[in-house]
Amino acid sequence: MGVALFLFSRSAHAEVIVNEVAWMGSIINSSSDANAEWIELKNTGSENVDVSGWILVAGDGTPNILFSSQCTNLVIDAGSLFLLERTDDESVPGILADCIYTGALGNTGENLTLKNASGGTVQFLNFSVAWSAGDNATKETMQWNGSSWVTAAPTPKTANEAESSSPPPASSDDTGSADTGGIVREGGGGFAFSSANAVESKKIKIQITTKMFAFAGNPLSFEAITYGHNGERLYNGKYFWNFGDGDFREAQMNNKEKFTHTYFYPGDYVVSVEYYLNGYSDIPEASEKIAIKIIGADIVISNTGDEKDFFVELTNNGAYEADISRWILSNSGQNFFFPKNTILGSKKKITLSSKITNFSIADKNNLKLLNSEGNVIFDYASSLMSAAPVVVPIKEKALPQAPVQIKREVSADKLPVEPFKDENEKKPESEKPAPALNLAASVVESDAGENNSSISYMPVVISTILIGTSAGAVYFIRQRKILPEAGSDFKILDE
């Protein structure tokens, strides 16, 4: 059985612990449902606790519960219980869940780590060998009664069976020298208990300290703390880290323990570390792994003020709260550095006064937001350009081509002589002259552009030939048919 130990702080501040685990599922509508798992937390302290940014993750990465994005309630009142249900709100019928998560707990055991928003370990449960309590057949849950883990009927959002209200006996070791395989509380120890059902395991153990999610391109701090067979801190040996993104690190323990690693792309990564007591050994004495979620930064300069009141507004459009400590607001000639512990919540805004940044309206078009590594996250000038309305020129309609003009060129000797007729005399339809057209027709220069293909002139040329031919035929026929008598088709005019 896994070892279950608590380490509590002596002070009376708020404490959040895992209080009950239904790792085996529940009885739903009189039927056993292995998927209806749930976990209950308890605030044992005297102050309310805001769990925004907190994470509860299993050693194999499933489940990986991100409170800020998966919980509807982010405050645990003093002395209150907090219910996390798997998949939907039907895992515990009739009781409203504070958080809905995905991912199954293994029936053979799990490591569970509860971390706060700064990445510090609030609680570590080591049940990788087996759960200390709970029954898969009866669906009785594993419950903390104040001194040990017990198997009892489920008590979601109510006090556990035989729960002890008396404080545990104090340990003489404030450094947390007790075996940390069960539950570890950040900040050292003060009190320790051992499960009555657990058999102590004398193994070397590693605890990884880091944030469970971070931005791509931002350095992420890592630290491994190793405990010996009797719970003592170990300071000699070698670590081998695998960051899950193709990169690794070997480090001697006598070097600086904390270091950083940067993930360049969003994704879910599994980080593992192995500890070698002998630096030349190929077999590790202990190993541990955790799951880390890397997200893309979606923080923008969403607005700025005017000349009278110039402010800079930032908006976090992402689904997670963002730690923008040591980020930079720059205008190419001046930088404003965000102080440590600057947190911007999901879908929240922050407005910076010019009295703090010392920026003015003259800096507006040069503002850039950079992360702590100096990488540009957002360029305000580029956003203004992309947001400007695009003026699409209206394409002018092509003017219709001018009609081809026909210039008639008729020689004087071929002009028809108009016969003398009485103006009042009605002309029969057969004698009405047809319109005179000349066979010799030329195309007058049109407005068509030089780019027009020569093929476009073909219909005009063909039409001209046909019209000219027809006109000539009509004229010839009329000359043969209408022959005026001699002398009757002239009229003498006095000069």
Task: Fill in the keyword field for this structure.
495 residues; mainly beta; Immunoglobulin-like; six-stranded mixed beta sheet; five-stranded mixed beta sheet; 4 helices
Report on this structure.
This protein has 495 residues and is mainly beta. It has 3 domains: 5-292, Immunoglobulin-like (Sandwich); 307-387, Lamin Tail domain (Immunoglobulin-like, Sandwich); 406-417 and 431-479, no CATH class. It is 8% helix and 32% strand. It has helices at residues 67-70, 354-357, 380-387, 458-481; strands at residues 5-8, 16-22, 26-28, 31-33, 38-43, 49-50, 55-58, 64-66, 75-76, 81-86, 99-101, 110-115, 121-127, 141-144, 149-152, 191-194, 205-209, 213-215, 219-227, 238-242, 248-252, 259-262, 267-276, 286-295, 299-304, 311-316, 322-323, 328-330, 335-337, 343-344, 349-353, 368-370, 376-379, 406-408, 441-443. It is elongated. Residues 1-14, 164-201 and 436-454 have low confidence and may be disordered.
How are the secondary structure elements laid out?
Blueprint: E1 5-8, E2 16-22, E3 26-28, E4 31-33, E5 38-43, E6 49-50, E7 55-58, E8 64-66, H1 67-70, E9 75-76, E10 81-86, E11 99-101, E12 110-115, E13 121-127, E14 141-144, E15 149-152, E16 191-194, E17 205-209, E18 213-215, E19 219-227, E20 238-242, E21 248-252, E22 259-262, E23 267-276, E24 286-295, E25 299-304, E26 311-316, E27 322-323, E28 328-330, E29 335-337, E30 343-344, E31 349-353, H2 354-357, E32 368-370, E33 376-379, H3 380-387, E34 406-408, E35 441-443, H4 458-481
Parallel strand pairs: 10-11, 18-24
Antiparallel strand pairs: 1-16, 2-5, 2-14, 3-4, 5-10, 6-9, 7-8, 7-12, 12-13, 14-15, 17-19, 19-22, 20-21, 20-23, 23-24, 25-26, 26-31, 27-30, 28-29, 28-32, 32-33, 34-35
